[in-house]
Every structure is written in structure tokens, then in C-alpha cells.
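Our collaborator T.R. sent over the components below with a one-line note: 'Predict the complex.' Nothing else. No constraints on interfaces, no templates requested, no preferences about which chain binds where. So this is a plain run: every listed entity goes in together, and whatever single assembly comes back becomes the starting point for the next discussion.
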Amino acid sequence: MATDPIIGIDLGTTNSLVGVSAWPGPTDLPRILPAADGAHLVPSVVRIDDAGVVVGALAKAQAAEHPRGTIASVKRLMGRGLEDAQADLPYLSYKVVQGPGQTARVQLSDGRLVSPQEVSAHILRALRAQASAALGVQVGRAVITVPAYFDDAQRQATRDAARLAGLEAVRLIAEPTAAALAYGLGLRASSPAQTIVVYDFGGGTFDVSVLRLTPGVGATATAPGADAFEVLATAGDTHLGGDDIDFAIVGWLAGQLQALRPGLPVPSDGQRRALLALAEGAKIELSKSEEVGIDLARALPEGSGGPLRVTLTRAVLEALAGPLIERTIAACGRAVRDARARMEGEGIDAVILVGGSTRMPVVRRRVREHFKIEPYTAIDPDEAVALGAAVQASILSGATTGAMLLDVIPLSLGLETAGGGVAKIIMRNAPVPAEAHEMFSTQVDNQGSIRLNIVQGEREMAGDCRSLGVYHLGGIPAMPAGLPQLRVEFRVDANGILGVCALEQRSGRRLDVQIVPNHGLTRQEVERIERESFAFARQDMARHRIADLIATGALDLGWVRTQLGRYGAGLASEPRGRIEGAVATLSELLERARGDWEAVAADELMRAKEALDHASVPLHELAMTRTLQQGEANEQQPGGKRASP
Ligand code: AMP
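Returned assembly:
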């Protein structure tokens, strides 16, 4: 039996899940690890305030009372600068400001700044604890999924979050790839290459990806080889989801309300929230039923009159949601067109549905009509990604054999050249791990240092791409322009993380960097936060120990005081004086520790407790003797009057 499973985590914008596969035994199927209350989904919501940190369902349920301290959808900020995140800000209920190193930071109501990585780390820590509790072993390694389009900075930020949560991210994989793995695609090495569409329609985002699965890459007569997943293309809309369908229903409900009760004032925030909850509930019901009754009075203040029932039919819902669903279908068309160039004439072999909104019958119907293929729906659409991550985790841990993954580079990687252009070194959609190099030289005579601006993006000018970092290769001896031979090599590892090596071949000057993106945390920052979290962990432990000592010390004191009252008169004055001294010392320390736990050192409390234990040995003995005598006395006098102690 493996002792240390690798878990699979779907770290989602709205909800997160954790799963495991092939554990404890290799034949155990992939499964989601529930929280103590049995829930599978952990809302990706974190509240940070003076009282501490609350993660998940509770933080979500109490969000209305703590609008500024509650952080939802932090995934939208991962690895991004404030400028990149502008489009997302209107959707976030908390304040986002520019932090050090061009990073977006969340500003809490007390002014404190926290990085998106730290917020995500709280979610990951909760998932890790949930998995450890469910499996009964400490879990320290995970495969974590990221959207296929996440760039280097966003992937780095995800890894940093894992590290802060005490998890080693052994692999980051693309969400659609995980969904395909959950369906066992890629585990049947004998089938021919397949093209798979993953249609992921969640609460706030829509993504469609086209994958190519090539089974048994590199197979030999004796070894099965690996299954390669390439993400051929992705498209989508990061602000399109089930929430938008809810808003459309609220608009319809508000119209009904106006018609039934003309002259009602504009709904307050609270009423809008109540209407939204009614709308979402009705939408979910309509995935099963043809119509649903809604009592609008539930969204009005008490005393606004009797019930106000309206009926929402599935047909009306489908009309309201129709334009939104058509936008997803248009994105499917774009993704397939983009992928076509690399598809070599194949058709689509499978369509997988992921995300809660794909439970709507109209969504399933439109996808079926568009692709002319029956979509895969056997796996719970909320769980597919986490289950797939768990499958990949079991492959990496050696518990499952078969599929290896090849993800692709989402955006081209290159170097800024003289004049501000970009020389692309690794092209978009190249499978990872990838390696490529280019030769460069200098533009001016006697150039002693070469500036390397590493960029990611599809645009031609470096200024229009994202700069991942600027480095300098110095110490180049004086040479005429064009003579130095600079070999720049880019290597992208299996996680999609870039390392660059620049070598000037005439002088042997060399630069090796692991790219730490501008928009991520610096290594130093990660280390500082890690140190701080260790320091907090130590502080938490010290506090815990004091609390234990206060509790057990109070019990000891209570016992000694009672026994002193009963038997104290039977003790000689010297031992009795020692006990009274020890009681006084311990109770004074306990008093102080109750007022302020940091006012007393745990060791001092411990010593005072031990001193009392030691001093009260004669009292223990006396109490024991008296109790025994009393027992004997009782034995001798059946039915007689009990001697009082
Ligand atoms: P996700 O982001 O994948 O967790 O999906 C959440 C979205 O799925 C929310 O907008 C939910 O309202 C929606 N959803 C969940 N269950 C259903 C259902 N049975 N029918 C329609 N929408 C649903």
C-alpha cells in the first residue's frame, strides 16, 4: 500500500475540489474526497479578518455581512498585474490595488495587502487538510489543474500558492486535458489518434478546448509508450457563465414584478440578491422540470402584501439563455477553426461536457446539434477536472501506468530584438517539454553587455507582448558589431515553466535563468511569506500549548484545593506549606496567562505544574490512605452508617 498518495486538485474560479485515484490500492477508482460535512465542492471563497481565516461554504454564506473581507474569484488575479486585471475588477466585491513588482494585490478592510497567491494558498490548504483527513495520511504532493490558456506568470503563481500551502505541485496540467483523462481517454493505448473537444461552461467562465490525443507515442515492440495530449486550440470568454443566465432571469422576474405590482420602488441590493437566489434555484429546477413556480414575495420586504406567484417555464428560460449559449457555440466554431490547421483533416471524435451549467438540457442539445455528436456526460460535470487531475497524479506516483501527458505552450515565447521586434523561439502550441535555440549577435561595436527581454505573446512588437523578465549578459569583450555569437536557448519543462540559457560562444560568458515573471511573486517574497507562515505556525503551536496547560493546570489546582480542604489538617505543616506555595504560584501564573497568553512562557507554566505535582505527593498518599480506610470501613459495616470523610 502506498503511504503518500499524490492528490489531484481542481483549483477553480468559483469552486474547488480534491480527488485521489488508485489509492490505497492500484485498482481503487478515481474519487472525490469530501469534506467532513460530506460536501464535494469547496467554494473558492476566503474571508480574512482579525478573527482569522475562513474558507469555503461558510465564507461564501457569510459574504453579504463581510463584503470587504471576503475574497471570491481570486483566480482571476493570479499572476496578473493591476492593468491586466482591469476588465475583471468590476466583478470583484473587494478592493484590488497595485502591489510591489506590478502585481495585483487584494486590499483588506484594515488596509492590509494580500497577494492572490496567499489567498489561493488558503483554499489549497483547506483542500489539503480535507484530503489528509479523508485519507488518514498527511498529504504533501498534488497535481493541480490550470486553464489551458494560463501563461507562465499565472502558472508560476499557482505553483507559489501551492508551496505556501505546504504542497509540492508535482505537475500542473490543463483543465481540459484533465477532463479527458477522467473519461479514461488516453488510457487505451491501442486506439487511433482522436480529436476531443472539451466544452467547459461554469458559473463565471466559458472555455472550449480542442485536444489531440495520440496514444502510444514512442511505443516499441516491448514497451507501450505514452499517450500524448496536445491542446490544439482554445477559445472562450472569461466573463460568460451560469451567473449571466441568472442575471437574465432576474431581469425577467423584475419585469413580472413590475407588471403585478406597478409602482414598486427600484429593488434594493438585498432584494436583488434574494431575486438572484430565486433565479438560480429556478434555473437548476428547470434542468429537471418543465416549469417552476416562483413566489416573488420572498424577495420583497415583510408586509409587502400576499404571495406573488409567477411561473417560469423551460421554454422561457431557454429563450432568455439562448443568446448566451449561442456565444459559447460561436466560440466552439472559432476553436475548431483554429485547431483545423493542425488537425490533418480529422473530424471531432468526442465532446466532453464540464462545468455546472452543462447540466442545462438546452446546452446539451445545442452542443449536440453543433458538433453532430452525442456529448459525454457520464461523469458529474463539476467533478471531471478534479478526477482527471487525480488520474494524472496516480500516473505520476507510479500507481497507474499508461498515459503520459503532453500539454502545449499557450503563447509563443521569444526575445526582444534591436528595434523592439520579437524573435519567437518557441511557438505557441508546441508540446511541452520543449527546447529551442536561436543565434543572435550585437548591433553596435564593443557592446559589453547584452540586454535580454524575454516576452510571451503573439504580437510582433515586444511592447505588445508580455515581458516575462529582463536580464543582462555582461562581461563581453570588445568586438565589432555582428561578431559576438550569442546562442539563446529556451527550455519549457513539463509544467510549462520557462528556463533560459544565453551563451556568448566567443567569450564563454553565460547566463542561466529560471524565469520569475514580473507579475508573480519574487522568489524572496515567496520565501518571506513561507517563513512568516512557519513563524505563525510556531506561534499557533505555542498558543495551543499554553491553552492546554491552562486547562490541565486548572484541573490540578481544583483537585489539590479540594483534597487540601478534606485532608489538609492531617498533614505536617512543612509539606502543607510547600503545597500552598505551589498552589499560589500556579494560580497566579494561570491568572496571568488567561489575561494574555503571551504574558507567560509555556515552560514556566509547565514547571509550576510539575512543582505542584511534586509538592502534593504527600497529599495524594494521605488521600489514598483515607479513601482505602473508608472503603474498608464500608466493607466492615454493611448497611451501616457511612463514615463521613
Ligand atoms: P461551476 O463553475 O462549474 O461550479 O458551475 C456553477 C454553475 O453551474 C452555476 O451557475 C450554477 O447555477 C450552475 N448549475 C449547477 N447545477 C445546475 C443545474 N442542475 N442546472 C443548471 N445550472 C446548474
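Summary for T.R.: The pocket of adenosine monophosphate is lined by residues 14-15, 202-203, 241-243, 280, 283-284, 287, 355-357, 359-360, 382 (CB under 6 Å).
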